[in-house]
Amino acid sequence: MSDLLSRRLALLGERANLPLLTRCLHGIERECLRVDGNGQLALTPHPRALGSALTNGQITTDYSESLLEFITPAETDPATTLADLDKIHRFTVGKLGDELLWSPSMPCRLPSEEEIPIARYGSSPIGRLKYVYRKGLAVRYGKTMQCIAGIHYNFSLPDALWPLLKQAEGDPQDDRDYQSARYIALIRNFRRYSWLLMYLFGAAPALDRSFLRDRPHDLDTLDAETLYLPWATSLRMSDLGYQNNAQAGLTPCYNSLDSYLASLRQAVSTPYPPYAEIGTKQNGEWVQLNTNVIQIENEYYSSIRPKRVTCTGERPIQALMARGVQYVEVRCLDINPYLPLGIDLEESRFLDAFLLFCALQDSPPMAGEECRSATDNFQRVVKEGRRPGLTLLRNGQAIGLTDWANDLLDRIARTAEVLDAAQGSQEHAAALSAQRAKVADPDLTPSARVLAELRQNGESFSQFALRKSREHADHFRSHPLAAEDQARFEALARESLAEQARLEAEPDVDFDTFVAAYQASILGLASH
Predict the structure, then answer these.
(1) pTM of the model
(2) What is the spatial distance between Cα 384 and Cα 524, in angstroms, rounded to a whole number?
(3) What is the DSSP string of 286-338?
(4) Whose CA is closest to 130, among 120, 142, 140?
(5) Are 430 and 418 in contact (CB under 8 A)?
């Protein structure tokens, strides 16, 4: 009796169905700090030459005015997605003057909390809302935490693939509900297996001492400026900094889209006493959008999210309720400081094979015990994933990380094979081989390479990161954009500034009323 993964792969591998796998969509969002030439946080405003952070769809800011975010369009070939990302970098670097893009995920030496500038989006109601939301993040988690950068990898399977599977499996749900259920099943498997991504691609084993602001910690000292853990893969994804907050108790259940949305709706509408004590305003100034567990759904920090493209004025949760899941956003990827874009095609090809495996592999509902061990496995790997002989928990039994990783790679090899068959290449198989090598030799992982290089060169984390940032800047400057690409980005920047001005010229809306309506848009959903 063949297993579910084999049956689904056999169906997709049929000649008539194989082209479907060339229609997956890929998008990348890359965050990175702007720093000055000496590697200090840039305290300058978001460069006007990059357009409006509120309305430019490709170049915006995340938490801080200094934290850039680059957003590619969704493309069927990740090579095209990476080419898009490369162009955004080249345009941006050309507008930064002496400033640099910081190469790793963990931040540079940061100024005092007060001095870290919160991103500003102008005087329109939506621009002010975005600013107040970030003020709320500062109140809740501190600004330092919000200066960490990562890569978000957006991935979808073509809509036509789901009815094919549904019909073969005789599933009675309608197409939309079946598609949502399958994406939620993908997310459950991602929760089970994403520790593997942290081992293979984690690139944040060390950080600048200033990041901890003299808080107690369990890190080792590498030098006067650098803290690290010897076997860590990704301190970015560890519990550093998120220990004492309302979200600790928020673990959405991924057993159905409805239960996931219900847990988020509850978090957005349940007051949290310490936040209530702060209030929404101080001296007449807004300091947070509300006093609930999370202000808006985006505040929920998770390693993967179900997503749906929103319409103008629509909230993410409303889009998911109305039209179901369209794609997933993988949020746990560190920026690889050795790569100018922070990610490359080999990583992307492996991610595709990994995510297709998560989508097609059987994914039973997760009970509390399995949820806990998934979280524990993930945390263990981010803090000590390269420790020799490390064991994880699989189905309640201890298993060596290496044994489990090899077992998973054997199964992922099957999805890599089908993707290669669809595309007439060997790129997924090659990407898989590169990951097998890292399992065999932990010294090949990015996290091990970073620590080895710090020791070898006698560099602090910040010296290493600044050197890499300068190398990447030289790389981008030596490949200026083609004239038509340059013109297109210039036009995007101009149009975005005009659009922001248009929004700000609209008749004045009372901001308190605007926020109340925004809150009501989700509270109204809770009663449905």
Answers:
(1) 0.97
(2) 44
(3) E--S-SBS-SSGGG---SEEEE-PPPTT--HHHHHHHH---EEEEEEEPP-TT
(4) 120
(5) no
Q: How many CB atoms lie within 10 A of CB 422?
A: 19
Inter-residue contact 132 to 286 (CB < 8 Å): yes
CA distance 299 to 292: 11
Per-residue pLDDT of the chain (528 residues; tens, 9 = 90+): 359 999 999 999 999 999 999 999 999 999 999 999 999 999 999 999 999 999 999 999 999 999 999 999 999 999 999 999 999 999 999 999 999 999 999 999 999 999 999 999 999 999 999 999 999 999 999 999 999 999 999 999 999 999 999 999 999 999 999 999 999 999 999 999 999 999 999 999 999 999 999 888 999 999 999 999 999 999 999 987 555 577 776 767 789 999 999 989 889 989 999 999 999 999 999 999 999 999 999 998 889 999 999 988 788 999 999 999 999 999 999 999 999 999 999 999 999 999 999 999 999 999 888 999 999 999 999 999 999 999 999 999 999 999 999 999 999 999 999 999 999 999 999 999 999 999 999 999 999 999 999 999 999 999 999 999 999 999 999 999 999 999 999 999 999 999 999 999 999 999 999 999 988 877 665 444
| Rounded Cα–Cα distance for residues 457 and 459 (Å) | 5
Task: Map tokens 């060390």 to a residue.
Answer: 206
Residue 448, both tokens:
């091990």
Q: How is residue 129 written in tokens?
A: 């809302």
Length of the chain: 528
Chain centroid to Cα 81, Å, comes to 16
- The pair of three-digit structure tokens given for residue 117, joined into one six-digit string: 């500038």
The whole-angstrom separation of Cα 84 and Cα 96 is: 19
Query: Is the four-CA dihedral 489, 494, 499, 500 of positive or negative sign?
Result: positive
Place of tokens 């010897």: 230
Q: Are strands 100-101 and 151-156 parallel, antiparallel or unpaired?
A: unpaired
All structural domains of the chain: 4-526 (3.30.590.20)
- The tokens for 462 are 């910040």
Using an 8 Å Cβ cutoff, are 323 and 297 in contact?
A: no
Rounded Cα gap, residues 413 and 38, in angstroms: 44
Residue 356 makes CB contacts below 8 A (sequence gap 6+) with 21, 24, 157, 415, 418, 419
H or E element, residue 392: strand 391-394
Contact 74, 27 (CB under 8 A): yes
Three-class DSSP category at 47: coil
Q: What gap in Å lies between CA 239 and CA 249, rounded to an integer?
A: 14
Work out the number of other CB atoms within 10 angstroms of the CB of residue 25: 18
> Within 243-284, where are the H helices?
257-269, 273-278
Residue 403: CB partners within 8 Å, gap ≥ 6? none
Q: What is the Cα–Cα distance from 320 to 347, expressed in whole angstroms?
A: 28
E strands in 90-139:
100-101
Structure tokens that stand for 101 in this block? 């893009």
Q: What span, in angstroms and rounded, lies between the C-alpha atoms of 265 and 70?
A: 29
